[in-house]
TrEMBL record:
Membrane topology label: Multi-pass membrane protein
Name of the protein in its database record: Small multidrug resistance protein
Compartments where located: Cell membrane
Organism: Weissella kandleri
Molecular function as annotated in GO: transmembrane transporter activity
Amino acid sequence: MLASVGLLALAIKALPLGIAYPVWTGIGAVGSIIVGVTLFGDHLSPLTWSFVALLLIGLIGIKVTSSH
């Protein structure tokens, strides 16, 4: 967790907090889902996977459309 917060601190040196924080939390959310599925055998419905995909699309959109 310390490494994650440290990387966020580095990110806000180059990006506004309003961009860096949502991307940071989104990566954490998607990462948690992937770990749950791959390591712990969590089962997600196709509808849930579609919302995970929407989250990824949103994160990419935030990053691509930011001015930094």
